[in-house]
Amino acid sequence: MKCKITNKSIDPFMNFGEMPIANGFLDKKDFSNEFFFKMEVGFNEDISLFQLNDHPKPEKMFNENYPFFTGSSEYMKNHFSEYAKFVKKYLKSNSKIIEIGSNDGTFLKNFIKETDKLVGFEPSKNVADIALKHDIPTINSFFNKESAKKLKDFAGNTDLICASNVICHIPDLNELIETIDMLLTSDGTFVFEEPYLGSMFEKVSYDQIYDEHIYIFSASSISKIFKKFNFELVDVIPQITHGGSMRYIIKRSKNEISKNVKKILDYEAEKKLDKLESCLNFKMNCEKSKDNIVEKINLFKKEGKAICGYAATSKSTTILNYCNIDSNKIDYICDTTKEKIGKFSPGMHIPIKDMSYFHNNLTDCVYLFAWNHKNEILDKEKNYKGEWFSHVEL
Ligand code: TYD
Question: Which of 212, 242, 246, 291 is in Cβ range 3.0-4.6 Å of 196 for a Cys bridge?
Answer without folding.
Answer: 246
